[in-house]
Amino acid sequence: MSRLFASVRARATLAATLVVAVALVAAGTAVLLSLRSNLLGEAGTQAERSARDVATALAVGTRYTELNLDDDDRPVQVVDEAGTLVAASEDLELITGTGVDAVTPQPSASPSDDGDDDGDDGDDDSGESLEAGEIGEPATVGDGTATVDGDTEDYRFVAVPVETRRGDQLTVYAGAPLSAEHGAVNTALTVMLIGFPLLLAVVAWVTWLVTRRALRPVEGIRREMAAITASEDLARRVPVPGTHDEVARLATTTNQTLAALESSVERQRRFVADASHELRSPIASLRTQLEVAAAHPELLDLDGAVEDTVRLQRLAADLLLLARLDAGERPADARVDLAALAREAAEGRTGVSVRGDAAVHVAGSRGQLGRVLANLLDNAQRHARSAVEVTVRRDGEAAVVAVADDGEGVPAADRERIFERFVRLDAARSRDDGGAGLGLAIARDVAVRHGGTLTVHDAPAGGALFELRLPGDRA
Fold this sequence. Notes:
Elements: H1 2-6, H2 8-59, E1 76-80, E2 85-88, E3 92-96, H3 122-125, E4 134-135, E5 139-148, E6 151-163, E7 169-177, H4 179-231, H5 246-295, H6 302-326, E8 334-337, H7 338-346, E9 352-356, E10 361-364, H8 366-383, E11 388-395, E12 398-405, H9 431-434, H10 439-449, E13 453-458, E14 464-471
Parallel strand pairs: 9-11
Antiparallel strand pairs: 1-2, 1-7, 3-5, 4-6, 5-6, 6-7, 8-10, 11-12, 12-14, 13-14
Helix pairs in contact: 2-4, 5-6, 6-10, 7-8, 8-10
């Protein structure tokens, strides 16, 4: 079960179901509250209409005994100013919620009587016009219950004050049944309690199917990556779905990563193979000389042994520097004067001249930048006929070092390949003269680590022009 809920499908299905559930509960609650409010308002309107009908009859002088209060669905009470029940619906047995619990009217004079039984009510018989009473504003009393003819129901009660033409202050309480409200709300609630779980089940099922279909390519990518890991075959690629969505972009990025990893591993393999090959030659030569010297001391070529040792030392230093660069070693943040560094690198070299600005500063490692200049000068002297010129200048915010020779130059097709490791265009030349093919690779790697570039162009004298461009230091 823990693995089930750990899956993306399960989490997506659960999240979608919870969101829909919360939305349904909120919407259902709002619907029920609105329905109940509307039905209660309708019940209040009906109760008010009943109370106004009775109040109107009282206002025009209708006797209590002549009031039409026989509506079984709407219990009515008429209460005087003293709180005495003077009229009530027929068969009213019990009532709560109006504040007057009495259900049996007390004897009282009718609003149209003059207080005696001698028949002296000539005001009415003569047809003299009498002013009608006033009906006040209705007020909702609240909800309560009433038992009429043995049936007990809930009601909403409304009170309407009225003043008869004799000046009596009366209050008419009338109720409207809430059975329709209860029935509608209960029906809606039942529908929701049955429908919502079914709807949530449908949502969960659809979400499960949709996520399974959406994540099927991801599972294919996972299986292929697992197979690649097991086989260590970096030439394989994961399938790319034709959906052009995030999963497709993930697969494309994964394949790009695999391609870069394959290239890196292949480059590392070539590097190890080439390094082993390059190290084998001086080590074998040195061993041979030492074995000969051990057997015949008089034949020891001391100069050759020293030369092989120095070559081996330089090659080891180059390999260590490349390893540090590959590991992402950040260059030092020192302030370096490229003009002074160029003059130091050119010192003692035959046919090398330096010209340019007095001081051109950059931020970086003095040792690594000095190694770049030395490698460029070594390469230029190796290919120059007679002269090498170094120019140091500013170009806007950049610092530029140009190393030009008057040799044969570099063919356009090989101007990027010469910066690869262990690449030598002059393959026929001996290793002693041509080097191991790491100088220019180291120079470009250092330039890139310093945020710059190293490119090769045609020199004005017809040879090669190597241009090192670095961010300038204005401090």
